[in-house]
Write a structure and sequence with these properties.
The chain is an alpha/beta fold. It is built from 8 helices and 15 strands. The chain has helices at residues 13-22, 53-58, 69-75, 118-127, 161-165, 189-208, 223-229, 258-267; strands spanning 2-7, 35-37, 43-48, 64-68, 80-84, 90-97, 112-115, 133-136, 152-157, 168-177, 179-183, 211-219, 237-240, 246-254, 271-277. The protein has a 6-stranded mixed beta sheet with strand order 2-3-1-4-11-5. Strands 8-7-9-6-10 form a 5-stranded mixed beta sheet. Strand 2 and strand 3 (43-48) form a beta hairpin. The protein starts with a strand and ends in a 6-residue tail after the last strand. Bound molecules: 1-O-pyrophosphono-5-O-phosphono-alpha-D-ribofuranose and zinc ion. 1-O-pyrophosphono-5-O-phosphono-alpha-D-ribofuranose binds at residues 10-11, 50, 139, 141-142, 155-162.
Length: 283
């Protein structure tokens, strides 16, 4: 049995649960239950505050965890990073009152900064040769300047709307963050094998993200040009059709170039273009 610590609520919760579900880990989630086991897979989930996940994994209360990079860097150096999961992207930034003139990191010299991430910001200030005072608080950091508790803040920025509504502006991005899969440094062989299987499943799900499966009919004389437009995983699958002048082509394309690729395919004479979602990609 592998015990995975996950956030009980907050910015990572929804996407963590979605990733687990797509990886085939299904549970009956009741209210106020801290520990739940999965159906048909030797994993149990321990629901914690994000701040507590790195230590729980480091000290073996949990074997693995899904946690924000912000909390991992602040508190989790004793656990190992297994995989960057790419979701819940945000950044840890320094922000100051909107009307302040900012002309570089020296602005912070002698200032008071409110934060829940003292380790990360102290390290950053030190590297930049800035002496500032830290005011460590665990929540509602963004209101500190407005009520005279601090001159500036160091906190998570995602959409930036919290900053705007508190009349603050982001002036230094210190650490880009995303969700991470972390693990204890001393897993038994049995637990490591479960973690490996989990990692394989996560990678199959993440790889398929933003990818589409495309099927189309192509005139044979345009096949080379069409293949050029469709890079695919290795090379596209080409099958003959009853009409000898046409072939069927199947490939994978990424969502980011989707409309551009479709436009080129149409211009090259492709017909009957079908686009399908991809759930998982095993390589
Ligand atoms: C963070 C941060 C801000 C907000 C920023 O809190 O403290 O309040 O998110 O996001 P925005 O740029 O999209 O407005 P979070 O929701 O992570 O809660 P926590 O600090 O209590 O963990
Ligand atoms: Zn938190």
């Amino acid at each position: 049995m592998l015990r995975i610590a996950v956030q009980s609520k907050g910015r990572l919760y929804d996407e963590t649960m979605l990733l687990l579900e797509e990886a085939g880990i299904k549970l009956n989630r009741g209210k106020r239950i801290l520990l739940l086991s999965a159906k048909g897979f030797p994993v149990e989930l321990l629901f914690l505050r994000d701040d507590d996940i790195p230590q729980s994994v480091a000290n073996g209360i949990a074997d693995a965890g899904i946690v924000g990079e912000n909390e991992y860097v602040e508190k989790g150096q004793e656990a190992r990073l297994v995989k960057r999961l790419g979701f819940s992207r945000c950044r840890l930034s320094l922000a100051i009152p909107k009307d302040e003139e900012y002309n570089g990191i020296q602005w912070f010299e002698g200032k008071k900064i409110a934060t829940s991430y003292p380790v990360i910001v102290r390290d950053y200030l030190q590297k930049n040769g800035v002496n500032a005072e830290l005011h460590i608080i665990s929540g509602s950091v963004e209101i500190a300047p407005g009520i005279g508790l601090a001159d500036a803040i160091f906190d998570i920025v995602s959409s930036g709307s919290t900053l705007v509504s508190n009349r603050l502006k982001e002036v230094e991005v210190v650490l880009p963050c995303e969700a991470l899969l972390i693990a204890n440094n001393h897993l038994t062989e049995e637990k490591q094998a479960i973690l490996d299987e989990l990692l394989f499943r996560f990678e199959s799900v993440l790889r398929a993200e933003g990818k589409k499966y495309v099927l189309l009919n192509a005139p044979k004389d345009k096949l080379a040009d069409i293949i050029e437009v469709l890079p695919g995983m290795k090379s596209p699958t080409v099958t003959p059709l009853a009409d000898r002048d046409w072939v069927s082509v199947q490939s994978v394309i990424s969502e980011s170039h989707f409309w551009e690729v479709i436009g080129k395919l149409k211009a090259l004479g492709a017909e009957g273009i079908l686009v399908l979602p991809i759930e998982k990609m095993i390589v």
